[in-house]
Design a protein that fits this description.
Length: about 900
């Protein structure tokens, strides 16, 4: 991740090696669990590295020294904002050293030799604890400075300034990769060894290794008492190393498997241990023996370890690296050894480690370093392996087996350290030494979750009089063991002793953090908040003042504070809390006490400070520098005024209809407020919902009912959640009013919007939970108001105005038909009924046609009979 956006330009190429090393270190931790995180160790609730008993864990050994901050840093600490290392200013430091070198050359050209001496010593001081990552030319500069100082020292032996100047100028030619001039015909006796050394170095730079080796051997023979002898012996050994097969062939000493699980091909040991390899080891041992406190002794030990590793003698290599890791005074030696051990890896069989322990058992410092390193740079990572719970059943079973095996390896390592510490205590009964190993024993025991035993061991170490860092470690392990056994008052006493006796210890953060946990466990939330403020744990502080600590207790806590900037921050937080709880007048009073600053607006909805570069990481903050935006105060006061207005309208409503409408408008004011209405930007800085969503039901939630507190906070925080109970109040109290139908519909839409507001609320609703007194849906509307008239759209519903996206919510009613004249009415009727009448007449005629014919016929026949009858009667 850290290398994802790295551009290897001239300006940052020096950082690449550091980033690569950090990446290797980060990747070495064995953790299968996949979870969201901000990647920090500076927190309790939102810690990416520790949960539960992880807070009893001490830091791994550091990998680098931050010369600016004057402290050593672990891999976890060498990360920062925008994926940039928090340490190292490589270009600036290189440029600074370039300026010193340029001044040296100018002073040489002007024969100001005293000034040259001063500048060279300054260069050595400035680069003593710098790394190659900060200045790639660091070692070359130091080598040149030492050589020039050797030449300058000859003035005390009578060598003239001119002769020294000539040599110094030749040395500057060499440093600039310019061919060095031939030595003068006449050379002062005391400078001949310097010129001979420079000529041999010229051969080495020209990659004429056999000739260079011969030149350095000749120098050692001709000038055995020269001040250059130590450097000459070192170069002889180094040339033999570079001429060896082991140096040229990287497969020498290789061990293990590749990424596909196939054994790596190892070069034959006989080839790797050639004559140059053997002679180089002899030369390095002779250098160490002759100059046990010399300038090159640690480099010689490092090369010895390298040769042992390439020669297949891994236990010998490990022993040398652990001797360097345990160096009591040389920080660079320790850091380089740590890096080398990281590159070598940690997986060794028991036989190799048994041999390594036998080799270092007589060196107390190396043995102590070995024990600490095996616990905190290897075993701990293995014991904290977790499953991800993703994948098919078969994959999960395979992963479960792998995790179980990994944890078993970790426990095996811890048990090994326990045995080793016990052996060392028996071998070295001296109180100081055995006390140190009792501390190591306690550290292994607490990782094995043997808390009672680790408490006893830590107490024993303290009684044996361990001092310095060992005493601080013993106190912390004792407190951790007590905490695991729920001896909370004892924890507090032990940690207060640690903080009192070691105020500048690297365990300061661990101690305060554990003190906060103990305070939480005893219900002392204010005491925990006190520690989080002291640590600058900005999001833990935010979580306490905005979620966990009840409002009335926060108010009392604020009364105990005296720092002005911190007071403004806490008062503003209290004001926002009171707004959520609808304590409007009290909130106004508190907000008006806040000292605010003009902060540029960067958001339409809210303005919070521009992105900041933090001193440590975004999780830590100095509360003296926090600012409260005056725009926040003005907006909050306007919010209070708005809701007070609608609450007054409700109180003044005369009848049910007007009261229902006033309540409906109050709920709609909440509904249509944005999600930042009750947000505290000073506390959360835009991270609230993500941080709360990252909390899991496991060890991240430490207090009884903590998840319920988070849910309660979330409902108070969201304006939509405020609107739902008020809408339902309208429905239940005033069901026959005009507002009731729209209130129920608005409550349904509020649930829908809230359920998709962010990750946290999506999880809440998908789990079957909801905001407000109950979950209402379309079914409730159909059941209570079967003739409800549905708006045109659910999206964009604006309840206050009963509109959709600012437009009508319902289709308009049809327009009435225009009035017709008599003629138009007749024509319409004719046009409407004419065809039907004609068809009816036709059907009637068809049906009656036969009958009418019969009737006419019978009528005519009857009429004829009548005429006949009348005729007869007249006769």
């Amino acid at each position: 991740m850290m290398l994802a956006r790295l551009k290897l330009t001239k300006g940052n190429v020096q950082k690449f090696a550091v980033r690569l090393l950090i990446g290797l270190l980060a990747g070495s931790a064995v953790v299968w669990a996949c979870s969201w995180s901000f990647t920090t160790d500076h927190s309790v609730r939102f810690n990416s590295y520790r949960t539960g008993r992880g807070f009893y864990r001490l830091d791994p050994l550091p990998i680098i020294y931050d010369a600016n901050a004057k402290k050593e840093l672990t891999a976890n600490q060498v990360t920062g904002e925008d994926e940039e290392p928090t340490i190292l200013e490589p270009i600036d430091q290189a440029e600074s050293n370039d300026k010193i070198v340029a001044s040296v050359r100018e002073a040489i050209s002007e024969s100001r030799l005293d000034e040259v001496n001063t500048l060279l010593r300054k260069l050595l001081d400035d680069t003593e604890y710098r790394s190659i990552d900060e200045d790639p030319a660091r070692q070359e500069r130091r080598n040149s400075a030492f050589d020039m100082l050797d030449a300058l020292a000859e003035r005390r032996r009578g060598v003239s300034a001119g002769e020294i100047k000539a040599y110094l100028e030749a040395r500057t030619f060499y440093d600039r990769s310019i061919a060095t001039p031939e030595p003068p015909v006449k050379i002062a006796l005391n400078l001949r060894d310097n010129w001979a050394y420079l000529q041999a170095a010229e051969l080495y730079r020209g990659e004429k290794l056999p000739e260079a080796l011969e030149a350095f051997l000749r120098h050692a023979s001709v000038y055995p008492t020269s001040e250059k002898n130590q450097a000459v012996l070192y170069m002889v050994a180094k040339l033999r190393i570079e001429l060896s097969h082991a140096f040229k062939e990287s497969d020498c000493g290789i061990q293990g498997e590749d990424y596909n699980g196939q054994p790596l091909v190892e070069e034959l040991v006989e080839n790797c241990r050639d004559e140059n390899w053997k002679q180089a080891i002899t030369d390095l041992k002779r250098l160490i023996q002759r100059y046990p406190h010399g300038r090159y002794v640690n480099d010689a030990k490092g090369w010895l370890a390298f040769l042992y590793r390439r020669g297949g003698m891994r236990e010998m290599a490990l022993a040398e690296y652990y001797r360097l890791l345990g160096h009591p005074t040389d920080r660079n030696a320790r850091l380089e050894a740590k890096k080398s051990l990281q590159v070598l890896g940690h997986e060794y069989d028991d036989e190799t480690l048994d041999k390594t322990e036998e080799l270092i058992i007589g060196d107390i410092n190396a043995a102590m370093a070995y024990a600490y390193h095996r616990i905190y740079n290897h075993a701990v990572d293995l014991t904290y392996a977790e499953r991800s719970y993703y994948g098919s059943y078969r994959e999960q079973m395979e992963e479960r087996k792998e995790v179980s095996e990994t944890q078993a390896k970790g426990r095996h390592e811890l048990e090994r350290v326990t045995r080793f510490a016990s052996r060392m205590m028996k071998r070295h009964p001296n109180a100081r030494v055995s006390g140190g190993f009792v501390v190591r024993l306690a550290q292994a025991q607490i990782e094995l979750e043997e808390y009672a035993e680790s408490e006893v061991s830590a107490s024993r170490a303290l009684s044996l009089g361990v001092s310095g860092e060992l005493r601080a470690e013993a106190l912390f392990i004792k407190a951790s063991s007590e905490h695991a056994q729920r001896k909370y008052e004892a924890v507090k006493r032990t940690l207060r002793t640690l903080l009192r006796d070691f105020p500048n210890s690297r365990h300061y953060e661990h101690a305060r953090r554990l003190l906060a946990l103990a305070a939480e466990d005893t219900g002392d939330l204010e005491g925990a908040l006190e520690q989080y403020l002291a640590l600058g744990y900005r999001f833990d502080v935010a979580y306490f003042i905005d979620v966990l600590l009840p409002t009335e207790r926060l108010e009392k806590f604020i009364e105990t504070r005296t720092n002005a900037a911190e007071l403004s921050y806490l008062r503003y937080s209290l004001g926002v809390r009171l707004m959520r709880e609808k304590e409007w007048e009290k909130a106004q009073r508190i907000l008006n006490q806040v000292v605010a600053s003009e902060i540029p607006i960067e958001s339409y909805d809210y303005s919070w400070p521009p992105p900041r570069r933090f001193e440590k990481d975004p999780y830590q903050y100095n509360y003296n520098g926090i600012q409260i935006g005056s725009t926040w105060i003005r907006r909050d006061l306007k919010t209070i005024e708005t809701f007070q207005y609608w609450e007054k309208r409700v109180a003044e409503a005369a009848d049910d209809e007007s009261k229902a409408e006033a309540l409906y408008q109050l709920a709609s004011a909440y509904y249509q407020s944005d999600s930042l209405t009750f947000y505290n930007p000073a506390a959360w800085d835009g991270q609230r919902s993500d941080l709360l969503a990252s909390l899991e039901s496991g060890e991240s939630l430490r207090l009884p009912g903590e998840m319920n507190r988070v849910f309660e906070h979330s409902q108070l925080h969201e304006s939509l959640a405020h609107s739902i109970p008020i809408y339902l109040e309208v429905v239940y109290k005033y069901p026959n009013t005009e507002a009731a139908k729209d209130a129920l519909f608005s409550a349904v839409i509020a649930h829908e919007r809230l359920g998709d507001l962010n990750y946290y609320w999506r999880e809440i609703y998908s789990s079957g939970f909801f905001a407000g007194p109950r979950l209402v849906t379309n079914a409730d509307i159909n059941g209570r108001f079967p003739k409800f008239k549905w708006p045109l759209s659910r999206l964009g519903w604006e309840p206050a105005t009963r509109t959709v996206n600012g437009g009508p919510a319902y289709p308009p009613p049809p327009k009435p038909a225009p009035k017709l004249s008599f003629t138009q009415r007749v024509e319409r009727k004719v046009s409407r009924y004419g065809p039907a009448a004609k068809e009816l007449a036709r059907e009637i005629w068809t049906a009656a046609d036969a009958g009418l014919r019969h009737l006419l016929m019978y009528s005519l026949f009857g009429f004829g009979l009548f005429l006949y009858w009348r005729h007869r009667m007249l006769k």
